[in-house]
## 1
Amino acid sequence: MLNQLKEDLLSGSAEKYLNKLFEKIEKSKLNAFTTLAKESALIKAREFDKSPWQGKLAGLPIGIKECISTKGIETTCSSRILKGYIPPFDAHVIEKLKNAGAIVIGKTNMDEFAMGTSTETSCFGPTRNPWDLDYVPGGSSGGSAAAVAGDEAPCTLGSDTGGSVRCPASFCGIVGLKPTYGLVSRFGLVAYANSLEQIGPLTNTVEDTALLMEVIAGHDWRDSTSAPIDTISYLPELRKGISGMKIGIPREYLGKGVDSKVEKAIWDAVAILENLGASWEEISLPNTRYALAAYYVIAMSEASSNLARYDGLRYGLRSARDENWHTTFSEIRSKGFGPEVKRRILLGTYALSAGYYGRYYLKALKVRTLIKNDFLRVFKTVDILASPTMPVPAFRIGERINDPLSLYMADIFTVPINLAGLPAISIPCGFSGNLPIGLQLIGEHFAEDAILRAAQAFEESTPFHNLRAKEAA
């Protein structure tokens, strides 16, 4: 779809296309965008129309999640504490997008500091699901997913710390990829949990995801966790088919706690993959039962450390009058952070405090190793894994926001992948009523080509990627 749009823009007008896009966004009920870079985007579009430039994404508009630094465009992480902050630099992925010819059209809504599963904790208000406005789009990259599903952007970037690209992709019926840890630079990504998070694309098709990954992946000397990988070609792999591929089905990812319609959609998807030439076998990841607890201890501990820098003294929210440091610091953070962020800071600080570090954080790191070893073991016998992305379809706005544990439990099939640093993709595979269901395909480290190939084979054999949400119809 992106390649076709690029051809359309070359033969038509990028400026007219962007004007229609901005008009739609400004009238939208989705609340997918928080800030529009209308002036700068239209200037670039006029330049493109006058003298088209080259590049894999030449002239294509893209939306960027609120936690990714964009030079000259407000970047707030959907938090009051960063209101008014305009970065003086671009994230590495933004540099790469611009070098490939893309045009940034604005910032997309998210759960505050990427802490959430529903995009309800944003200071800009909740984003709505294009398939049904009464339902959540997933989180924390809900604005990025809703923008794509609602035809308000042909592609977007999100970030995934425990499922924040895959969850909204599943709930909104689009494609979302969480890359291998280290494959995409985190330079310019506002830190939530450094050892877990990765930037990833959200698109309408697998081919579009592969195209964006070719652009944003690669080594960056400014990110000490960046893998020494430069040239990556995913598009040629998509047409190779999956004949002979072995797929593992984790028994811990199906059964109790999984919505019956979700489970049926997953088994139906496995049958399709089998008809395409793959084989499958049931496998076990026994330490999955500890994943959620380990993840939240690690993520909250890292968050409490990372968010200590926000004091309102250098940028962002500032108190009307300054008193002593402790009072001013406390007042700014009390007003600037929302309830979920405060909750995670407090729990993380507790887990790292004297006397509890070994009991909680250190033990969580040991459990993380067990979970990683589970995956390494099963990948000796299978090529990829298949599972539900989420155990349930999207839920109603307001249904779970006051029950944090139920929100945390929704991440049960996505957080193990972040703990192990593996790549995983969510693609649409069915519906529960009018709400999409996502299939998650998981690969070995740096095996994005394998999961993209399987995702492409499934997509070509099913109609789900061609179905449009009512807000996009």
## 2
Amino acid sequence: MNTSRPRTFGGRFLLLAAFVVPLLAHAAPATTIDVHRDANCGCCSKWIAYLKDNGFQVNDHVEENMSAVKARLGVPGALASCHTGVVNGKFVEGHVPAQEITELARRTDLVGVAAPGMPMGSPGMEVPGHANAYQVLGLTHSGETQVVADYPAR
């Protein structure tokens, strides 16, 4: 004779909850990025959509004077692109991939990262059949640039 009690839906739910709830409690909150852009920039909107698709919480700021924003944030002219993001006080200039933005939080040696210009094939600059090689550069506290990542042509 089987004396065990049959499992009920409620019992299965409680068992599942016992495993799932602790995992959810440890899930990392979305990284917030403030994106400053010109109102007429189409690729900026595409980059914002890319960031959202990659789990970022985006605060979109339409600016009248992007040069002033870049100067205030310390973005050197040689690293400039069309839009500028800010994560935890560090700048993210141009079409930087999500992986490098996430890594920036761990890089205490950098004040920001940039994908200078508007590299074809970078996030927000995708064109089927066209992807140029590009680099993501980091700016150190002393003002030196270093290669953070290489993205080959595809």
## 3
Amino acid sequence: MDIVQQFYNNLAGQYDRLFRDWNASVSEQAAILDRIFACYGFDRTAHILDCACGIGTQAIGLAALGFPVTGSDFSDAALAQAKERAAKHGVPIRFAHADFRVLEHAFSEQFEIVIAMDNALPHMLTKADLEKAVCSMIGRVRKGGMFAASIRDYDVLLQDKPPYSPPYIHQTADGRRVSFQTWNWNDENYHLIQYIIEDGEALAVSKFECEYRAVRRAELTALLYAAGCRNVTWKMPEDTGFYQPIVIAEK
């Protein structure tokens, strides 16, 4: 098990604590994606593959809107959370264990829409792995379909390589929850430590470690064109309301 898989297996039970209100975020993010899909001519009959579904943050919200959704991830703990949460929300989602570098091993069919949100692609620590992942994802998109992914704005972050992310402070029923990340850079790669601090009746600190590679928009754009996409567009947070830049690739 590599560090990325271990990170998500360990974090799965606490991932929702990174949000002020996870359920509200599920609905808000689905609404944003629904508007984007509609702008590209897709209605809620479009079959979606969320190939980095995690605990279901996007998949559940989209399924609640009526989209036929398939969710996959390589973290069994995250998938278990996603299945449980989908059942609680009363939405039908097909889930599968899959490494998004080799989606063809899990899925023979193609989808109108494939998504990989929440900075999933920068877990590919080499250019070769990133290219493999992009080719795998675009390979599951039908002709005339679309791919959408969100990543951090590394074009900006690489200018200063900040050592940490600003903290999020959420009020809970028991006190305050503080979450933040530290980043230790090594050229374009960085080691991330995610802290979640529960400052309630008793102090509790959780710590999770992972690795990323900062992917510039130009690099990802070039790979999408090379994988067979005919049009690639970047949408920034001020345009969409989503918290990260989103790349849209039409096939």
## 4
Amino acid sequence: MDLVELDFFTTREKLATREISCKELFETYLQRIDKGAHLNAFISVFPENGRKRADEIDRKLASGKAGKLAGMILGVKDLISVRDELTTCGSKILSNFVSPYDATVIRKLNAEDVIIIGKMNMDEFAMGSSNENSFFGAVKNPLDVDRVPGGSSGGSAAAVAGNLCMAALGSDTGGSIRQPASFCGVVGLKPTYGRISRFGLVAYASSLDQIGPVTKSVADTALLLEVMSGGDKLDSTSAHVAVQKFTAALGQDVKGLKIGLPKEYFSEGLDKQVADAVSLSADILKSAGAEIIEVSLPHTEYAIATYYILATAEASSNLARYDGARYGYRVPDVVDLEDMYVRSRTEGFGAEVQRRIMLGTYVLSAGYYEAYYRKAQKVRTLIKHDFERAFQTVDCLLTPTAPTTAFKIGEKVDDPLTMYLSDVYTVSVNLAGLPGISVPFAQDRAGLPIGVQLIGKAFDEETIIRVADFLERNADSNS
């Protein structure tokens, strides 16, 4: 098997026995990035820094003092700060911004000896479901280059699926890790809100954003989650709760677990092949001793509207700082301050970002705040209560990740409402602050991957990792 097709757990064994070196591994991935340049998954690549890190980690491996992630070749979504490197958010307005510090997750990962190979392409400011909104151009799905990889973490998912890096970091505000993971046939986890520090993550919607891993296996996801989790004094929204040994959930059975199927997730708009894949996964779990229970999440129909009110409102507030005055893009030859603000933002932001800023500004404006923003907050609470009631009878939920498999590039780009519906099964998880994971389970008739989603109780990533790992091990039985 080609070295780059291996997950990290397998590769780590080869590194530990000195069958391969970090330097050899890193150079192999650099070659893969060159060959995969047509996917447009990377915004920047770090060959020299990576080579230095590889040499350093090879010495640590030889001395037996290497970290638990030694040799992991990692890509980082380009809205997570890496010191002295570009952090563009896929936008013209930050196309020349160099981060002066590391995000907390980057510090934690570096301490365990990852090698960061580059920054990943993404929908501008994480606003998109297809990765067609980047200033640096659309990302292509490595399984079919005429199709989207999903968004907004499309570069991360495409790079992992295309073997351009071993794993990658993404961010998930309404499905931006899980949906591209489903489209590209990889594993994507959105942790509980507060599980991982957001310090150093450029904000889109602060009450919804979470950093998470995109990997080739559930085992790699569990290991990365162990390293990245934990409270952080630099992020007041991070939770100071105990970090479980998530890798202990691997290899277990599912006997005795109660798994819910929300009936609202299997209505009109769900592709039959996707529905069949979820049903098959439920059958496999049931045959292994799990109890499958139908549950109801009655406010699901309001989730998309609620999300696109709250997320755009927070985006309007967060993106007000990009004004051409302090950092980022500034138009030349300005007439006055207002001219600088208007022209810098008009030229610096793409169409989708402008659309969401205007939507958010509208719902926050005088006379509309009560009708939209405050009402959406109330509905968000109702959605959260739906999950709480469901979890009184089940241990986790099993759902589709996305209503379809990967669609064609350009197919939905001119129809934002249809595009927004791509997130119909993922946004509720963010609104409720819960953990969710997408694991590849089947393929449609065109050979495109279908991911199934598992949703857990707050801070119970352990259960969804346990079930996801079981489905991953049993996915071959449905082929």
